[in-house]
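chain below, 430 aa
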Amino acid sequence: MLLPTLVSSIVSYTAQVVMSVQIRGPVKVTGSIPYQMDSRQAGFFGAVFWNPTDDFYEITNVEFNASTAISQVFSRVEQGAGSSYPTSGWILDSTRKVIYLPTVRVVQPHTAVEFYVKVMGNRQTESFSVQVRAKANGTDYQESYLTSQQSVDSPFSVLWLGQGPTPHFVTTISPGVRQTFYVTLQESSGRIAIAGGGTLTILVPREFTSLASIGGSGWGSATITGNKIEVSNTETFVDSYRTYAFTTTTPSSGSLYQLDVSFNGAPNEHPRGNFAIQISGSPPAQIQLYCDSYNPFNQSPEWALVGTSPYLNEVDYPSNYIHTSSRNAREGYFGFQNSGVETITTVDLEINGRTDRQSDLVQMRIYDGSTWFDLGLIRLPATFEWLSMDVTSYLNTWEKINAAQLWLQLSAADNRGHVYVDCARIRVNG
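prediction:
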């Protein structure tokens, strides 16, 4: 077999340095959903994805799904800075019941991430459920929230963290300190006010101690019972928000906790939000080095290359990828980003791909700058997913990692199958 001509790594993508903290609880998704919705104005819908594991989770879709509604309840989305995160890519489907975000967002071990977008009602009168959903590593996660919409002008009430005007659904703070938290109730229709006399209820995780109310403009005196805070809004407000503040001592250990907030008020306001509080720690670093160069193998039969070199630099099928149905087809050489700033504990080679036929296998080889190593045969899944191979014994220094190149070969009985590879990366755990 020919050895590759080594090429200098063209760093066109920034290596991802991943910091992680210990998190409690399962992998899940939560949200903050308005109740109620005005007939023709927009308000925030928020989602939070939680990853408490030692693995990377790659989110490929986020959605607010009201498919069980009878009516077409959404008319459009508003996106951009201050209106959505990410600032583009949100889509309202043709049923006008589902808003979704096709995305590629890698969630580092022991972290949570937020998404939000402004959603406009569609002049319907109906109470319905909204499923906050996220698909990560091929699995769907969801949480259900109830909302209501009116065909006439009505308040658009929603909850979020922070002092505004940009919402937050995840916040990161230091361990073992006195910390102030801000919870905001917003009326965004600009037409009908939220009446005074409603009750904001905040359930603070029991690990947070010494709760004390600070208050805020438009809020009365709070009642604190154990880990529960209850406080009433003392004024009517429209097209604005009211922020309530409290202080507490945070836990001394790094972890992530859920803050549950709800509001019950007039005329018919019952928004609910489940937010993430992340306590920072001193976690190990993890670095992802994506494919950033392609040095053609030039020996038939080869794989078909789609898109722009280096083809495997990000998860973006069908824009850039490689594929083949030819038995024994070979392809390489794919290089990776350079780094060298962290201690090396373990190293994994990861590819994102799929196959049309489970009997077809892909042979993998890795180069360390002087020697090719056979990693054996892998079976790709039926849908695009990440597969990981431990290559620590081959790439155990930064010199070898920075010289690494990947070579692939299809192992199949005939030419009737088809395999696809969309992305490749090296993950270094410190």
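Residues 285-429 form a domain with the Jelly Rolls fold (CATH 2.60.120.260). Residues 290 and 425 are 4 Å apart (CA to CA).
thats it, cya
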